[in-house]
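Whiteboard transcription, Tuesday session. T.W. wrote the structure tokens on the left side:
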């Protein structure tokens, strides 16, 4: 936003009209964020998202791995015990969540490193490529 300042000391009269010089001043004192600050902010968000993902995947694996539910199957009189090893899909779910949780715990070190060294580009590329390949 620009403001107009009137300088009355330099005023003059021209053809019977008061003429004032106009001086424009920029009153915005916005601090532009540097790329280093932006990289540190992204690294903090990355760390928080990794922690949330660890809690979610580990919680899902533990909940599925320790469940022992008895469900009525076809009729109320035939009980069916459901566990993670009854169907290959459930076994894959537990194994995949365990692998992803382990990967996220190991990748926390790189995420913390990026918070400390915001100019590290090679490790960011490695982390992004591993994030893409992880199940």
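and on the right, the sequence the group agreed on:
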């Amino acid at each position: 936003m620009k403001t107009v300042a009137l300088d009355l000391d330099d005023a003059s009269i021209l053809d019977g009209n008061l003429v004032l010089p106009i001086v424009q001043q920029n009153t915005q004192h916005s601090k532009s964020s540097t790329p280093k600050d932006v990289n540190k902010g992204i690294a903090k968000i990355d760390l928080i998202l990794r922690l949330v993902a660890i809690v979610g995947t580990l919680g899902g694996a533990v909940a599925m791995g320790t469940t022992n539910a008895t469900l009525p199957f076809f009729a109320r009189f035939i009980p069916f015990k459901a566990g993670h090893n009854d169907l290959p899909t459930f076994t894959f779910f537990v194994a995949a969540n365990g692998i992803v949780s382990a990967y996220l715990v190991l990748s926390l070190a790189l995420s913390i490193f990026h918070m400390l060294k915001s100019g590290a580009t090679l490790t960011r590329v490695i982390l992004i490529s591993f994030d893409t390949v992880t199940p």
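Someone added at the bottom: Residues 35-65 form the longest helix (31 residues).
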